[in-house]
Amino acid sequence: MAAELVRGQNHPLPWTRLEIRVSAGEPVVAGATLGDDRGKVRGVEWVAHPGSPALPGLEVSQQAAAEHRLAVDLGALPDTVHRVSVLLALPVGVGGPVSFRALPAPFVSVTGLDGAEVAGYTITDLDTESAVVALELYRRQDAWKVRAVGQGYAGGLTDLFTDQGLPEARELAGAIEDAVARGLARSVATPPPRPADGTRVRTAPHGRSERSAPAGPADAARDAGPQGQPVPAPRQPGGPVDYTHPGRRASAPPPQPPVAPAAHPGQAPRPVAGDATGWSMEERLYNQVWGMFEDLARTTAAYRSAVDFADSRMEQELDRVLSDPRSRIGGAGDAARDTARAKHADLTGQARAALDRDLAQLAAEADVVEPALPPAFAAWSSPVWQAYRAPMEIPMALRLGDLHLPERIDLRIPMLVRLPLERGLWIDSGKALTNTFTDAAELRRLAVDTAVAHTARLLAAYPAGEFSVHVIDAAGSAAAAFAPLVSAGVLARPPASGAAGVSEVLARLTQRVDLVQMAVRGGAADALPPDLDVAEQLLIVNDFPHGFDDRAVTRLRYLADEGPAVGVHLMMVADREDAAEYGPLLDPLWRALLRLTPVPDDHLADPWVGHTWTYDPPVFPQGSDVLRQVLDRVAAARRNGGR
Question: pTM score, two decimals?
Answer without folding.
Answer: 0.64
